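INPUT
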Amino acid sequence: MKPEELKGHLDGLILAVVSQEPLHGYAVIEALKQRSGGALALPEGTVYPALHRLEAEGLLKSEWTQAGRKRRVYSITKRGEKELGVSRERWRVFSATIEAVLT
Amino acid sequence: MNYLDELDSELAAAGIPARRRARIVAEFTDHLGENPAAELGAAKDLARQFADELGTRLARITAYRAFAVLAVAGITLGVMFFGGGRTWGAWVGYGSNPYDGVIPGWWVPLMVLWFVTAQVALAAGSLALLRAWQLRHERVITAGDAAVLNRRAAVGLVAGAFTMLLLPATDLMLARPLIYRMSGGAIEVQVDRWHSLFAPYGHTWWPYVAMIGGPLLIIAMLAMLPSVMAAARLRPSREGAAGDLTSDIGPELSERFAASPERIAVALSATIVLVMLAVGARSDDALDGLLRGVLDAGVCMAGFALLGSYLGLRTTGRTTS
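OUTPUT
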C-alpha cells in the first residue's frame, strides 16, 4: 500500500496498535506491518512525526524506559481512546459507503 | 557526517527545539539499534515532516492561548469600564479630580497610546483566534498561515501588555462623560465626573482586582512571548500565501457577501461607530459615543492600512515569509 493512500488514516492506525499495549516507535511500525500482513510497510521514519504530534495533542503519552536500551514507549490516553472510537466509526461509515458503490 | 548527525542538523535547521531534537535522535538511535538496515527516509524530509506536524499545532495553540490571556485582560478592563463606572460614584464621590476638572496635557498622548494599544491587542488577538479556528481541521498549514498566526499572537500580546502597563490611563478613560468644547481655537477635553483609581476609596473589591490583575496579566502576556518565538522558529515547510481577512471569515461567508478585505474593514468600522453611538445614546451622551466610535473606527482603518500586510489582513501579492 502506498503511503499517500494512508493519509487521513495513519493516526487511527497508530492509536489502534498502541491501544493494545504500550509500544516504542520501532515496535509501532512492526505492529502495523504484522497486523496488516505486510501491506502497511510505511517509510519507517514517517511514523515518528505522527507519534510526536499525537502526543502533543494529548492522544498518546510517552516515557523513557531503560530495559536494556534507552527507549521512548508510547501508550494511549483516555482522549486517545475516545479518538480511536471516532476513527473506527468514521472508517466503518466510509468503507461501507465505498463498498456499497463499488459492489 | 553519519545519518543521525545529519538528522540532528536538519532538525535544527527546521527550527525544532534542542530538547525535542535530542529526543528524536535518541528514538532514531534506538530504531537503528533494532534494525541497522532500517530505511528511515531522507533526513531533510523527516525534519520537514516534524516541522510540519509540530509547527502547525504549535502555531494554532499559541494563537488560542494568546487570545485566552487577552480575553482575560479584556474582561478585566471591561469590568473597570462598566462595573467601575456604575459603582464608583457611590463611594468615590464626584469632584475628586486632582486636576480641577481639566485633563492635563501630558495625559493626552498617554490616553491616545492606551486607546490604540487596546484596540490593536483586541483586534490582533481576535484575528489570531479566528484564523486558528478556520484552520482547525488542517493537519499541516502553510508557512504563510503559520507566520500570520504567530505575528497576530505576538502583536496582540505586546499590545496587550502595553495596555495593561498603561492601566493608570484607564483611570482617565473612566472619567465619563467627557466634555468636548472649543477653547481658544483648540478642543478642550474636560470631565464632569472623576472616578479616580488612585483617589481615596472605600471598601470595595474591584480596584484591588485591577491593581493586582494588571501586573499579573502583564507577566502572563510577557511569559507567553518565548513560546510565540518558538512557534515562529518552528515553521511548517508547506508553501502558501498568508491569505487575508476573507480567509478569517471563511470561504462560505466571503462568497455569500462577495467580501473583500477592504469591504470587511469598512463594514467593521461602520459597525463600531454605530455600536459606540448606541452605547453613548444609552448613557445620555450620544456625542461622546459618536466621538469614541469615530476614533475607534479610525484606529481600525489605520490598523488595516498600516498592519494589514504584516498581520495577513490584506493580500499584497507576495507570500508571507
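end of record. The radius of gyration of chain B is 25 Å.
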